[in-house]
Batch of 2 targets.
Target 1
Amino acid sequence: MPTLLVTHPACLNHLPPLGHPERPDRLRVIEQALEQERYQSLARDQAPLADMETVALCHPLEYVEQIRDASPSEGLVRLDADTTMSPGTYEAALRAVGAAVFAVDEVLAGKTVNAFCATRPPGHHAETARPMGFCFFNTAAVAARHAQKRHGIGRVAIVDFDVHHGNGTQDIFWNDASVMYCSTHEMPLYPGTGARTECGLHDNIVNAPLRAGDGGEAFRDAFEEAILPRLREFRPELLIVSAGFDAHTRDPLANLNLVENDFAWVTKRLMDIAGQSANDRLVSILEGGYDLEGLSRSVAVHVSALMRG
Ligand SMILES: [Zn+2]
């Protein structure tokens, strides 16, 4: 079964202020990379629009309406220091959620074994009722809840190797024993959460912070020692990956030194986990990654690994 790639041109229409790192070119270079010959066998679909009830699986309906109503008809509106909306933002955010939910549907229907969602804006900083850090709706969290509420999946794991801590995802599942959230991230760094001592009410949160300057070895050790054993024990029935590539050594927003091979390695280890307890079911969602070359090369090896290539 081919790996599924889900994207949508509307995700290019979320326009940041000039010079902002979370920009449409990120998706353009990914699209270019995945046009190469060896990606011809990918199944490709366009993301449907998520409906408000779906987004409301993780956010109060009033919050979703608030984001909708904040949408400018022209120009930009600033929601926090680095999170702004353009006229195309609301649809882009709904396509990002729609892509992840559609990918979960396809994977759980057995139509594909795994999927990558190349969408923006990202989601892992969005808390229950607060946009922040380039994020509006928590796409990975909604995908997990959708799998549980609409497909009857029990245990879902969300693994986040973005260089920033997914404070939003942690917030949403802090008190939910059925979802395990695991994260590697540079610390101290934005947003400031993600200490090893933050474990959730049911010991369902696993934070493995790294230090500025750390590279592949420390990253792999964090997975081998802190994260993979916990995932094996938890036995997720579905694995969702918050795939941020800003821990790449070229990335301008952080100071970890990962290279493409490290992303290939972690992808394979997560596929091993999915193989052990989840029938290989894995849905990966783009989060950060702000150096265009580092991002496109890293996504390329990540998707190659998903294709078992
Ligand atoms: Zn990030």
Note: The chain has a mean pLDDT of 98.
Target 2
Amino acid sequence: MLDANPEGYTTADGRKIGGVLMEMRNITLRFGGVKAITDISFDIREGEIRAIIGPNGAGKSSMLNVISGFYVPQEGEVWFHGQRRAPMKPYEVARQGIARTFQNIALFDGMSVLDNIMTGRLTMMKTGLFSQALWWGRAQAEETEHREKVERIIDFLEIQSIRKTPVGRLPYGLKKRVELARALAAEPKLLLLDEPMAGMNVEEKEDMSRFILDVNDEFGTTIALIEHDMGVVMDLSDRVVVMDYGKKIGDGTPDEVRANQAVIDAYLGVAHD
Ligand SMILES: Nc1ncnc2c1ncn2[C@@H]1O[C@H](COP(=O)(O)OP(=O)(O)OP(=O)(O)O)[C@@H](O)[C@H]1O
Ligand SMILES: [Mg+2]
């Protein structure tokens, strides 16, 4: 289906998926003697919700870290917007329009929800501290614009009531939502979510699922997510990459992956806490 439609396709529920946005070609990543990723290739299409699944230690987070520029693979190529990406620092990747959340929440506990979300816009701020001192008028205008964008995200994720609360005081599920807000504040083209629903109860998972779908729908954001809850993965994603011991063992629509015997053996049959 995909090969026959290089410019994209329409999903069963009527969402338009475009051409290839990101392509991983033959990626291999080693940590000393440990091969975290072995010769993996896959692509992510514009507007798509793409899942990466697999048992613990399969190499999923490592793959997200390659996409976000945190790790540079020993072998393989990363292509973004039809161009091969030179090895670059995570902040440079962020400037290209890729934002992420972390498997272990990475927020500033002592800072308010609002200020945490503002840090998501740092890569976009034109005026540095020095020029802010000299040109405070322009810096103020910029600050106002940033605040307006952030307020829109706060409304969108329904966290108005906690905007002044220090993040450290929030329950886990809301922290995850604030982390999503911070990533969205960077207005990413591609959003990477590493287990956005881990540790959540059913209701919190439903909320997060809805927000992920809404982000994709409202902002047209392409999303790559790692998730262990198979129900969530199958509901949310357009296509799924399956990893096991650093290798790709499956890639396709949720139905295709569900029917793949290698996947059933490696993952679906194995209990996961
Ligand atoms: N910084 C690192 N240094 C050394 N080894 C690492 C490092 N990061 C990951 N690994 C190893 O690489 C392999 C893949 O780890 P990774 O965290 O990518 O797996 P994962 O699929 O995200 O697992 P989980 O579901 O538990 O989060 C594991 O064997 C892990 O121990
Ligand atoms: Mg992980």
Note: Residues 119 and 205 are 25 Å apart (CA to CA).
